[in-house]
Give the backbone structure.
Amino acid sequence: MFGIRSGTFFLARLILGYIFIMHGWQKLHTNGIDATERAFDSMGIPAPNLAAQYATWVEFVGGILLILGLFLPIVAILLIADMIGAIAYAHWDAGFWAADGGYELPLALIGGLLAVGFAQAGSAAADHYVFRRRRRGAVVD
């Protein structure tokens, strides 16, 4: 069974993962990649096609990996980079508040990613089992 800490990290990953999956799904199916690319181009995002593909897939697949607890530090870095881009190109000029289109939500997501991406994952994460052998064989100085 999972301990309270492992369980709360799982819930945090579940919430963050769901948010990112939904945003990736929106770019992929609701709006479509072409509309996402046009929107990115209108915001002045460099290489809008590449950026649209990156944002769509890192959010969708990254959200799934967050929920599974797999490759957490790598996923967190990729999603943080995505959110920094969102802040810089889509939200900064609107100020802080999310209700005004500001950077409040992507900043909060970065905070959550820092918390779950770089903490010890716990037994409710795939990383705990995938990297278990490496931990056992580690030499302590």
Q: What stands out?
A: The chain has one domain: 4-136.
